[in-house]
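QA checklist item 7 of 12: single-chain prediction sanity check.
[x] sequence parsed
[x] length recorded as 107
[x] structure emitted
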Amino acid sequence: MTTRQLTPPSSTDDQGCLRRVLAVPLVILHLLAAWCCSMALTIRPSGPWDDDAHAGIALASALTIMASALALLITAVPSVRRTMGPWWLVPPVLLGVTAAVRWAFGA
């Protein structure tokens, strides 16, 4: 009779699966933030009296900042950052800064 030795799966297999699992909510949050940011950038007020457009810019910017902050919080967890890599911090920072600038200079 021969005995076959079972080898445990390698840790790179586990990390690849973990990356895919963690990437799903991060990609969804990045896409949501990008869509809200594009709305904030495309809304143009007709004039200083256009309160609805200014409110739309503020809402879209606030939603972008919230989605970006949530993505940053998820990515900033040390175990996630080790698994995913630091470049996942770039999209929420860029989108959040863009939305904050648009909100500040809303015209």
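[x] summary fact logged: Residues 38 and 60 are 8 Å apart (CA to CA).
[ ] second reviewer sign-off
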